C-alpha cells in the first residue's frame, strides 16, 4: 500500500511539473506590467502568472491559520465568561 501511495504521489508531482513546463513554454509572449505608474521590465507572460500563483498559495494558508487562531481565541474567551458566570 505504501509503495502504491508513493508511486501515485510521484506521478502526480511529475504531472504537475509537466503542466507547469507546458504552461511556461506556451506563454512566452513578452509583457510589461504597469502598476501605480511603476513599470516592470519586459518579461514572459508566464512569470507574473506563476508569481501570482505562488503568492496566492502562500497567502491562502496564512489567512486560514489566522482564522483558526481567531476562532480559538473566541472559544477561550467564551469559556472564561462561562466559568465566571458559573463561579
From TrEMBL:
<dbReference type="Pfam" id="PF06305">
    <property type="entry name" value="LapA_dom"/>
</dbReference>
<dbReference type="InterPro" id="IPR010445">
    <property type="entry name" value="LapA_dom"/>
</dbReference>
<protein>
    <recommendedName>
        <fullName>Lipopolysaccharide assembly protein A domain-containing protein</fullName>
    </recommendedName>
</protein>
<keyword id="KW-0472">Membrane</keyword>
<keyword id="KW-1003">Cell membrane</keyword>
<feature type="domain" description="Lipopolysaccharide assembly protein A">
    <location>
        <begin position="26"/>
        <end position="85"/>
    </location>
</feature>
<keyword id="KW-1133">Transmembrane helix</keyword>
<keyword id="KW-0812">Transmembrane</keyword>
<dbReference type="GO" id="GO:0005886">
    <property type="term" value="C:plasma membrane"/>
</dbReference>
<feature type="transmembrane region" description="Helical">
    <location>
        <begin position="42"/>
        <end position="68"/>
    </location>
</feature>
